[in-house]
Amino acid sequence: MSKRAYNFNAGPAALPLEVLERAQEELVEYQGIGMSVMEISHRSAEYEQLNAETQELLADLLNIPAGYKTLFLQGGASTQFAMIPLNFLTSEKVANYVITGSWGKKALKESKLIGETRVVAQPEKFSHVPDLSELQLDNSSAYLHITSNETIEGIQFQQFPNIGDIPLIADMSSDILCKPIDVSKFGLIYAGAQKNLGPSGVTLVIVKEDLLENTPDHIPSMLRYDTHIKANSLYNTPPVYSVYMVNLVLKWLKEKGGLDQVEKFNQEKTKLIYDVIDESQGFYVGTVEKQDRSIMNIPFRLKDEALEKEFLKQTQENGFVGLKGHRSVGGMRASTYNAVPYESCKALSEFMIDFQKRNG
Amino acid sequence: MSKRAYNFNAGPAALPLEVLERAQEELVEYQGIGMSVMEISHRSAEYEQLNAETQELLADLLNIPAGYKTLFLQGGASTQFAMIPLNFLTSEKVANYVITGSWGKKALKESKLIGETRVVAQPEKFSHVPDLSELQLDNSSAYLHITSNETIEGIQFQQFPNIGDIPLIADMSSDILCKPIDVSKFGLIYAGAQKNLGPSGVTLVIVKEDLLENTPDHIPSMLRYDTHIKANSLYNTPPVYSVYMVNLVLKWLKEKGGLDQVEKFNQEKTKLIYDVIDESQGFYVGTVEKQDRSIMNIPFRLKDEALEKEFLKQTQENGFVGLKGHRSVGGMRASTYNAVPYESCKALSEFMIDFQKRNG
């Protein structure tokens, strides 16, 4: 086997080597049943066990309180952008969005297609989370939507707003399970799997059941949360293999000691890179104010595009993958999801120091 | 490794052993790049290659003419049930459905939520495909929807209706690639992958591009075919691993000699089972008229439920999986998709003969 890449992909992204090795071992033959997990029926005892166990692992890791339901859907966060207003934005209501980056804007666009939608906070530049401590939402509010971590801009909520009885809905695609959160503050949490949960192809939804009593009748069955709640995510054929991989990743997180440990580990490894930026005397420029920096996505710039191009070229030659910033913002970005090892961040920080010596 | 099960699951279903072994071999390390295929970016050269090659393999196997676009989506056929009327059933139009079983009824239900919808043919009992040779559709027709193979009832279209300029739309989830078809007769073909294409988690859509000029503005981005056409199935993160598995299955089909050979092979192996039914003098009862029998799903009954229960118990004890009929119709069903080997069908036919000897 060749050396493992230093994988900083923004998603699909690095998976734990131990998880991949376990998946490889049992790919052809699952639990001695003469079949691959890809060949079992979603109505089989084996899949029911997998479905239930994966929900329990999430409940355990995130300390999900009673009254919430965990769903495994398809279509990614992009489908949730539409499902949320379709289910919650009934005709007399208004949807509220806090925009802190590119994904929030995409969510907003879909809500506008469905019903009355307003932006309640958006900083002029995507460099920080706006102060939401004074935010007051009236009773016409269907919900408040936030993006807990903006993958492209590298902005992460450090605390969540208190908005009384209005449901708080969060796109946590790129920071779910990176640290403990208080699920009881949320009406709905959703996350595409391909950053912190597993491979692409499954979307996690954690939803407070009692919010779903007013879904309009004309909404297609597959776009109704109550369809999937009633069927325990088995209304139609689920993405069995993706759920299986999520199951393995969650077990790996538990073995790591749970989310307190995972957060500590993420802070340690991202500190390696943020320290190089902060100590570079302006050679590397972070784009986010320190207090709202993400421990999942670290965007940074160099003084000009030519030098950035050279940086990316040399990192590629040295076994680093995925460091190019999103095409909409340019520059560099290191995505440091749970499965990205300390070793990769250490190697990147050392490369950055060396690159500065040679080009500073 | 334990013995491979005789896997007759209705979907997710058997995959070719060679494909599983290949997937296992390269699960941790894909093409020497130091990553799993699950860890590559969907914007990477590796995935672009996989996306393009999988489209080409389909074009080649199905002889797809110019003017059609091949998409890899999420959400299964159940999401297509809604997407089709959302995209095609504009306000002055009427959607037409031929109902030959349970899946057609599900598709119909979703269309009724969206717009004016009518059933143009439905046999009293789901035992045959109605005669559509005289079918006339007026110009208000948005499309005609058929289910080319009803997975639960085991009814398969042997030929497709000629309806002039009205788009013919077919759910081919359970018989895509089981035999050659004339794609040019269709406006849109769709299929969940988990029967003949690969594992669950990806949905194939083959659509005539010029039909998509009138999608209403308010349809959410993810539910618009034109979104996915413009982005070459990369509007959002695709189910990378599922597409990879489909790619391997398609290569396996090519190695088998293409769809003419595959059809012959399917006929030979299903004949083993249908012959036992036909020669059993009423011990085994087929539920479909001979001319419309499916070469993918073979439903059959015994004289009473007690004997059926005994049959299922004994097959389970003898290494057979998935022979229980769908809970909505009862009885038995052998799903004999492309990847189900001759050996499995031979074993089942022998078991059936033996079971009759012992219980006839």
UniProtKB/TrEMBL annotation, chains A, B:
Cofactor binding annotation: Binds 1 pyridoxal phosphate per subunit.
Assembly mode: Homodimer.
Function as written in the Swiss-Prot or TrEMBL entry: Catalyzes the reversible conversion of 3-phosphohydroxypyruvate to phosphoserine and of 3-hydroxy-2-oxo-4-phosphonooxybutanoate to phosphohydroxythreonine.
Alphabetical list of Pfam families matching this protein: Aminotran_5
Entry's EC annotation: 2.6.1.52
Predominant location: cytoplasm
N6-(pyridoxal phosphate)lysine PTM sites in chain numbering: K195
Domain Aminotransferase class V intervals: 6-343
Name this polypeptide is given: Phosphoserine aminotransferase
Cofactor names: pyridoxal 5'-phosphate
Organism: Chengkuizengella axinellae
PANTHER family reported in the protein's UniProt record: PHOSPHOSERINE AMINOTRANSFERASE
